[in-house]
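Collaborator request, handled under Task 6.
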Amino acid sequence: MSIPNVMRETTSLNSGDCFAMFSRVKEKFDFPLHYHNEYELNLIINAKGAKRIVGDTIEIIDDIELVFIGPNVYHGWFTHQCTTRAINEVTIQFHKDLFDEKFLQRNQLFFIKNLLENAQRGIVFSYETTRDITTRILNLNNKDGFNSVLELISILHTLSLSKNMRILSDLGFSGESFQFASRRVDKVFEFMKSNYDKQLTLAEVAQVANMPEASFCRFLKKRTGKSFIESLNEIRVGNASRMLISTTHSIAEIAYQSGFNNISNFNRIFKRNKLCVPKEFRREYTAG
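C-alpha coordinates returned to the collaborator:
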Protein backbone atom coordinates (compact mmCIF):
# COMPACT_ATOMS: atom_id res chain seq x y z
CA MET A 1 0.00 0.00 0.00
CA SER A 2 1.54 3.30 -1.09
CA ILE A 3 0.17 6.48 0.46
CA PRO A 4 1.41 9.97 -0.39
CA ASN A 5 3.03 12.00 2.40
CA VAL A 6 3.81 8.95 4.56
CA MET A 7 7.52 8.73 5.30
CA ARG A 8 9.47 5.52 5.66
CA GLU A 9 11.73 6.03 8.66
CA THR A 10 15.11 4.39 9.08
CA THR A 11 15.45 4.28 12.84
CA SER A 12 18.70 4.65 14.76
CA LEU A 13 18.26 1.28 16.46
CA ASN A 14 21.57 -0.53 16.15
CA SER A 15 21.41 -4.02 14.65
CA GLY A 16 23.52 -5.31 17.54
CA ASP A 17 21.21 -3.98 20.26
CA CYS A 18 17.97 -5.51 21.50
CA PHE A 19 16.18 -2.18 21.81
CA ALA A 20 16.66 1.57 21.93
CA MET A 21 14.99 4.14 24.16
CA PHE A 22 14.58 7.85 23.53
CA SER A 23 13.14 10.53 25.82
CA ARG A 24 12.31 14.00 24.58
CA VAL A 25 10.66 17.10 26.00
CA LYS A 26 9.38 19.37 23.24
CA GLU A 27 7.02 22.24 22.52
CA LYS A 28 5.19 20.58 19.66
CA PHE A 29 4.99 17.46 17.52
CA ASP A 30 6.93 18.01 14.32
CA PHE A 31 7.56 14.53 12.87
CA PRO A 32 5.45 13.54 9.85
CA LEU A 33 3.21 10.51 9.49
CA HIS A 34 5.60 7.60 9.11
CA TYR A 35 6.34 3.88 9.48
CA HIS A 36 9.36 1.68 10.14
CA ASN A 37 10.39 -1.96 10.49
CA GLU A 38 10.55 -1.98 14.29
CA TYR A 39 8.02 -2.41 17.08
CA GLU A 40 7.46 0.79 19.01
CA LEU A 41 6.08 1.53 22.47
CA ASN A 42 5.29 5.22 22.75
CA LEU A 43 4.47 7.00 26.03
CA ILE A 44 3.09 10.52 25.61
CA ILE A 45 2.75 12.78 28.67
CA ASN A 46 1.24 16.27 28.89
CA ALA A 47 -0.17 16.44 25.36
CA LYS A 48 -3.92 16.77 25.83
CA GLY A 49 -5.59 17.85 22.60
CA ALA A 50 -2.92 16.42 20.29
CA LYS A 51 -4.04 14.29 17.35
CA ARG A 52 -2.89 10.71 16.95
CA ILE A 53 -3.03 8.68 13.73
CA VAL A 54 -2.39 4.93 13.88
CA GLY A 55 -3.34 2.86 10.86
CA ASP A 56 -6.71 4.21 9.79
CA THR A 57 -7.69 5.55 13.23
CA ILE A 58 -7.63 9.26 14.00
CA GLU A 59 -8.20 10.35 17.62
CA ILE A 60 -7.63 13.30 19.92
CA ILE A 61 -5.61 12.20 22.93
CA ASP A 62 -5.79 12.97 26.64
CA ASP A 63 -2.97 14.26 28.83
CA ILE A 64 -1.25 10.86 28.97
CA GLU A 65 -1.35 7.80 26.73
CA LEU A 66 0.58 4.65 25.90
CA VAL A 67 0.47 3.14 22.41
CA PHE A 68 2.12 -0.02 21.06
CA ILE A 69 2.74 -0.17 17.31
CA GLY A 70 3.88 -3.06 15.15
CA PRO A 71 6.29 -3.01 12.19
CA ASN A 72 5.26 -0.90 9.18
CA VAL A 73 2.12 0.49 10.82
CA TYR A 74 1.48 4.09 9.79
CA HIS A 75 1.56 6.37 12.83
CA GLY A 76 2.17 9.89 13.96
CA TRP A 77 1.27 12.47 16.61
CA PHE A 78 0.36 16.04 15.69
CA THR A 79 0.05 19.17 17.84
CA HIS A 80 -3.51 19.94 16.69
CA GLN A 81 -5.30 21.46 19.73
CA CYS A 82 -2.52 20.79 22.25
CA THR A 83 -1.56 24.06 23.98
CA THR A 84 1.08 22.81 26.41
CA ARG A 85 4.73 23.57 25.67
CA ALA A 86 6.36 20.77 27.61
CA ILE A 87 5.31 17.54 25.90
CA ASN A 88 7.21 14.51 27.17
CA GLU A 89 7.57 11.70 24.65
CA VAL A 90 9.28 8.44 25.58
CA THR A 91 9.84 5.95 22.77
CA ILE A 92 11.07 2.36 22.98
CA GLN A 93 11.85 0.58 19.72
CA PHE A 94 12.89 -3.05 19.29
CA HIS A 95 13.58 -5.34 16.36
CA LYS A 96 10.73 -7.41 14.99
CA ASP A 97 12.91 -10.52 15.32
CA LEU A 98 13.76 -9.89 18.98
CA PHE A 99 11.31 -12.66 19.83
CA ASP A 100 11.96 -15.72 17.71
CA GLU A 101 8.79 -17.35 16.35
CA LYS A 102 9.61 -20.71 17.98
CA PHE A 103 10.24 -18.92 21.28
CA LEU A 104 6.81 -17.29 21.05
CA GLN A 105 5.17 -20.69 20.61
CA ARG A 106 6.05 -21.59 24.21
CA ASN A 107 3.13 -21.61 26.63
CA GLN A 108 4.66 -18.99 28.92
CA LEU A 109 4.85 -16.52 26.02
CA PHE A 110 1.21 -16.90 24.97
CA PHE A 111 0.09 -13.45 26.11
CA ILE A 112 3.13 -11.62 24.74
CA LYS A 113 2.60 -13.41 21.41
CA ASN A 114 -0.98 -12.10 21.29
CA LEU A 115 0.23 -8.62 22.20
CA LEU A 116 2.74 -8.60 19.34
CA GLU A 117 0.10 -9.84 16.89
CA ASN A 118 -2.40 -7.18 17.95
CA ALA A 119 0.29 -4.51 17.62
CA GLN A 120 0.05 -5.07 13.85
CA ARG A 121 -3.07 -2.90 14.09
CA GLY A 122 -1.83 -0.64 16.91
CA ILE A 123 -2.89 -0.83 20.56
CA VAL A 124 -3.78 1.95 22.99
CA PHE A 125 -3.78 1.01 26.66
CA SER A 126 -6.22 2.22 29.27
CA TYR A 127 -5.53 5.26 31.41
CA GLU A 128 -5.19 3.04 34.49
CA THR A 129 -2.66 0.74 32.82
CA THR A 130 -0.68 3.70 31.50
CA ARG A 131 -0.64 5.40 34.88
CA ASP A 132 0.47 2.24 36.68
CA ILE A 133 3.32 1.39 34.31
CA THR A 134 4.66 4.88 33.54
CA THR A 135 7.28 4.83 36.31
CA ARG A 136 8.64 1.48 35.13
CA ILE A 137 8.95 2.77 31.58
CA LEU A 138 10.69 5.95 32.70
CA ASN A 139 13.07 3.97 34.91
CA LEU A 140 13.99 1.54 32.13
CA ASN A 141 16.60 4.05 31.01
CA ASN A 142 18.37 3.58 34.36
CA LYS A 143 18.95 -0.11 33.72
CA ASP A 144 21.60 -1.48 31.42
CA GLY A 145 22.73 -4.65 29.76
CA PHE A 146 20.87 -7.87 30.43
CA ASN A 147 18.76 -6.35 33.19
CA SER A 148 17.32 -3.77 30.80
CA VAL A 149 16.22 -6.50 28.39
CA LEU A 150 14.62 -8.49 31.20
CA GLU A 151 12.72 -5.41 32.35
CA LEU A 152 11.51 -4.65 28.82
CA ILE A 153 10.17 -8.19 28.51
CA SER A 154 8.56 -7.86 31.93
CA ILE A 155 6.90 -4.59 30.89
CA LEU A 156 5.56 -6.21 27.74
CA HIS A 157 4.25 -9.13 29.78
CA THR A 158 2.47 -6.76 32.16
CA LEU A 159 0.93 -4.92 29.23
CA SER A 160 -0.14 -8.20 27.62
CA LEU A 161 -2.18 -9.02 30.74
CA SER A 162 -3.71 -5.56 31.15
CA LYS A 163 -7.43 -4.92 30.88
CA ASN A 164 -9.30 -2.65 28.50
CA MET A 165 -6.57 -2.32 25.88
CA ARG A 166 -8.06 -1.23 22.57
CA ILE A 167 -6.99 -2.23 19.07
CA LEU A 168 -6.90 0.83 16.85
CA SER A 169 -6.78 0.08 13.13
CA ASP A 170 -9.59 -1.69 11.30
CA LEU A 171 -9.25 -5.15 9.83
CA GLY A 172 -8.64 -4.80 6.11
CA PHE A 173 -6.73 -1.52 6.23
CA SER A 174 -3.20 -2.91 6.00
CA GLY A 175 -4.00 -5.76 3.62
CA GLU A 176 -2.05 -8.16 5.86
CA SER A 177 -3.25 -11.67 6.66
CA PHE A 178 -5.41 -12.03 9.75
CA GLN A 179 -4.18 -14.03 12.72
CA PHE A 180 -6.56 -15.32 15.36
CA ALA A 181 -6.12 -18.07 17.91
CA SER A 182 -8.29 -20.34 15.77
CA ARG A 183 -7.68 -21.77 12.32
CA ARG A 184 -11.42 -21.76 11.69
CA VAL A 185 -11.66 -18.03 12.46
CA ASP A 186 -8.60 -17.39 10.28
CA LYS A 187 -10.27 -19.22 7.40
CA VAL A 188 -13.51 -17.24 7.82
CA PHE A 189 -11.75 -13.88 7.89
CA GLU A 190 -9.57 -14.72 4.91
CA PHE A 191 -12.73 -15.61 3.00
CA MET A 192 -14.40 -12.31 3.98
CA LYS A 193 -11.22 -10.42 3.11
CA SER A 194 -11.22 -11.96 -0.38
CA ASN A 195 -14.92 -11.34 -0.96
CA TYR A 196 -15.84 -8.20 1.02
CA ASP A 197 -16.73 -6.37 -2.21
CA LYS A 198 -19.49 -8.90 -2.89
CA GLN A 199 -22.88 -9.17 -1.19
CA LEU A 200 -21.87 -11.88 1.26
CA THR A 201 -24.52 -13.66 3.26
CA LEU A 202 -24.34 -15.25 6.68
CA ALA A 203 -25.16 -18.62 5.10
CA GLU A 204 -22.14 -18.42 2.77
CA VAL A 205 -19.70 -17.55 5.53
CA ALA A 206 -21.13 -20.13 7.95
CA GLN A 207 -20.59 -22.72 5.22
CA VAL A 208 -16.90 -21.78 5.06
CA ALA A 209 -16.70 -22.51 8.79
CA ASN A 210 -18.66 -25.72 8.21
CA MET A 211 -21.15 -24.75 10.91
CA PRO A 212 -24.91 -24.09 11.12
CA GLU A 213 -25.69 -20.37 10.98
CA ALA A 214 -26.83 -20.02 14.61
CA SER A 215 -23.82 -21.96 15.93
CA PHE A 216 -21.47 -19.94 13.73
CA CYS A 217 -22.87 -16.65 15.06
CA ARG A 218 -22.29 -17.73 18.65
CA PHE A 219 -18.83 -19.07 17.80
CA LEU A 220 -17.70 -15.87 16.05
CA LYS A 221 -19.04 -13.61 18.78
CA LYS A 222 -17.27 -15.65 21.45
CA ARG A 223 -13.96 -15.72 19.57
CA THR A 224 -13.84 -12.13 18.31
CA GLY A 225 -16.37 -10.20 20.39
CA LYS A 226 -18.12 -9.13 17.19
CA SER A 227 -21.00 -10.38 15.09
CA PHE A 228 -20.69 -11.50 11.49
CA ILE A 229 -21.98 -8.21 10.07
CA GLU A 230 -19.80 -6.15 12.45
CA SER A 231 -16.73 -8.12 11.35
CA LEU A 232 -17.59 -7.80 7.66
CA ASN A 233 -18.24 -4.08 7.99
CA GLU A 234 -14.93 -3.59 9.78
CA ILE A 235 -13.09 -5.20 6.86
CA ARG A 236 -15.06 -3.06 4.41
CA VAL A 237 -14.42 0.16 6.33
CA GLY A 238 -10.72 -0.71 6.61
CA ASN A 239 -10.50 -1.15 2.86
CA ALA A 240 -12.46 2.07 2.29
CA SER A 241 -10.11 3.95 4.63
CA ARG A 242 -7.11 2.70 2.69
CA MET A 243 -8.63 3.80 -0.61
CA LEU A 244 -9.63 7.19 0.77
CA ILE A 245 -6.04 8.05 1.58
CA SER A 246 -4.20 6.19 -1.19
CA THR A 247 -6.38 7.01 -4.22
CA THR A 248 -8.25 9.94 -5.71
CA HIS A 249 -11.38 7.86 -6.32
CA SER A 250 -14.70 9.48 -5.50
CA ILE A 251 -16.54 8.59 -2.29
CA ALA A 252 -19.15 6.76 -4.37
CA GLU A 253 -16.54 4.66 -6.20
CA ILE A 254 -14.88 3.71 -2.92
CA ALA A 255 -18.20 2.80 -1.33
CA TYR A 256 -19.17 0.40 -4.11
CA GLN A 257 -15.70 -1.11 -4.43
CA SER A 258 -15.72 -1.76 -0.68
CA GLY A 259 -18.97 -3.71 -0.81
CA PHE A 260 -21.51 -1.08 0.24
CA ASN A 261 -24.62 -0.98 -1.89
CA ASN A 262 -25.46 2.71 -1.39
CA ILE A 263 -23.77 5.91 -0.28
CA SER A 264 -26.01 6.65 2.70
CA ASN A 265 -25.38 3.21 4.17
CA PHE A 266 -21.63 3.65 3.61
CA ASN A 267 -21.59 7.06 5.30
CA ARG A 268 -23.61 5.79 8.26
CA ILE A 269 -21.45 2.71 8.91
CA PHE A 270 -18.21 4.61 8.29
CA LYS A 271 -19.21 7.33 10.76
CA ARG A 272 -20.20 4.74 13.36
CA ASN A 273 -16.74 3.16 13.08
CA LYS A 274 -14.63 6.29 12.59
CA LEU A 275 -16.74 9.03 14.24
CA CYS A 276 -16.55 11.06 11.04
CA VAL A 277 -17.84 10.76 7.48
CA PRO A 278 -15.48 9.59 4.68
CA LYS A 279 -14.91 13.10 3.31
CA GLU A 280 -13.81 14.38 6.73
CA PHE A 281 -11.59 11.33 7.26
CA ARG A 282 -9.78 11.89 3.96
CA ARG A 283 -9.21 15.56 4.78
CA GLU A 284 -8.00 14.92 8.36
CA TYR A 285 -5.66 12.09 7.38
CA THR A 286 -3.99 13.86 4.49
CA ALA A 287 -3.66 17.05 6.56
CA GLY A 288 -1.74 15.17 9.27
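The cover message to the collaborator said: "The chain has two domains: 7-167, 183-287. Residues 3 and 246 are 5 Å apart (CA to CA). Please let us know whether this matches your experimental observations."
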